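Progress against Task 2.4 (sequence-to-structure conversion) is shown through the following example record, which the project officer requested during the mid-term review.
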Amino acid sequence: MIKINVQNSKLAVTAGLPKQFPAAGVPQIAFSGRSNVGKSSLMNTLLGRKSLARVSSTPGKTITVNFYDIDGKLFLVDLPGYGYAKRSPEDKKRWSQLTDGYFTRNPRIDLLCGVIQLVDCRSGATADDLMMIDFLTQSQIPFIICVTKTDKLGKTALGEALDSIAETCGVERDELVPFSSLSGAGKNELWNRIYQLLER
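Structure tokens generated for the chain above:
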């Protein structure tokens, strides 16, 4: 089993163009989700850091692919958030080209072990989320659905939300990973799933 010191992590590359993607020969795990789904907060919680991944107060502001080097053995890849209504047509085009470029012009796409697809427990799976899941399925890219902001709902409401998300996404409920960046709930489970992807 691969041993990774999660504390030894840093932002290695901020890529605004596909040609800036790194060519290092280490596995990649990408994180995908709509703007304001809590991606940066989740990544900071996963890595035990407060502000390694920048949490923006303006959703959809940053259009870059960020590569976080974890102990020199793994890249966690933060894909730009989608579905932000106020983004200009030019920005939406750039987002589409950059995200598409990650999958089509990434020099080490062969080292992509899987995608963590984030879904907000309150909004459920949006049309954009389902489009991304369909793309991953069609491309035969392994993915994990991680349900964020679970601390925002009570136990009964959260259970109903998880049932609905599982049904909408066409997966079993126990395949979902409920996650709270506030309490850290789900952190160990998500790391376990990531390690499983790395060992496939």
